[in-house]
Amino acid sequence: MIELSPVTSEGADALRVDLCAMILAVTAGVPRILTIQTPDSALAEQPLLHALPWGPLDPRTDRTLERTLRSWVARQSRLSLGYVEQLYTFDEGRAGEGLRRISVAYLALMQEQAIAQPGANWRDVYAFFPWEDWRDGRPAVIDEQLIPALQHWLTGLPDPIQIERERERMDIHFGLNGAPWVPERVLERYELLYQAALVPECGTTGGHPALGMPMALNHRRVVATAMSRLRGKIQYRPVVFELLPARFTLWQLQQVVEALTGMSLHKQNFRRLVEQGGLVASTGELAYDTGGRPAQLFRFRRRVLRERPTPGVGLPGGFRDS
């Protein structure tokens, strides 16, 4: 368990800045995030919750946000981060006694490494968002648990206009009544569940046990924000290659994209799209540890960064109905 001492300032207008990192790897087709265990007094019945690596910024000694973040991650997991980008700044509002809290979240991509730090572990991201994984078809939790719970929430709203507005949001975000499922709307779906008090992070005694594992602080919102960013970004930036070894098979590449999008892809269409986009080049070598026929090994073709303004893995027409 990681114990943290918050950094605060004296006075009525004190400001606290926390930093956290959503660190993602894809291993054997499973998207996994690094978590630590941290106390959360807001949920007394669950005193230890999963959290992202995090810690406070001390403006008196910390030189930069990113350097401080990397220091917290190294201290809590013994990992050294590579690719990092600032994700979002969350205003947590006033926390009492004139203290205002701001949290700055970062997104880091890497290949999974063994963790020697007690309390730090890799967790399947879909354990926190089970409704987001469509690789084996529409998740049963949506129709069996989530939609009935949302409909029950709608019946308790006092304003008919609000009911209609929220019903429309539910249809759009969860692909109901003719609306398509849009993978990038991870955050919108979580926010609707939060508003309906179906997740424990909303601060009530509610929360539906089937709707994913809870996280400390605002960290499940951070993960939802990061997954929304990634699902959109892979279509115009080659970020997926940060999750792959230098040499990889096209099947490994497809597994990473499917893991991030939560969708199954048509094998031949996907490979044709990748090769036509000039994203990869053959190394002339073969991988023999495939469990079947040897497969060609490829590398990321960095020259594509100069050739195309949006060198991502385009996905139109790539999803396969399950």
From TrEMBL:
Lineage top rank: taxon: Bacteria
Pfam families, alphabetized: WHD_NrtR
Domain spans labelled NrtR DNA-binding winged helix: 240-300
InterPro entries documented for this protein: NMN_biosyn, NUDIX_hydrolase-like_dom_sf, WH-like_DNA-bd_sf, WH_DNA-bd_sf, WHD_NrtR
SUPFAM superfamilies named among the record's database cross-references: Nudix, Winged helix' DNA-binding domain
Protein name: NrtR DNA-binding winged helix domain-containing protein
Lineage: Bacteria, Pseudomonadati, Pseudomonadota, Gammaproteobacteria, Chromatiales
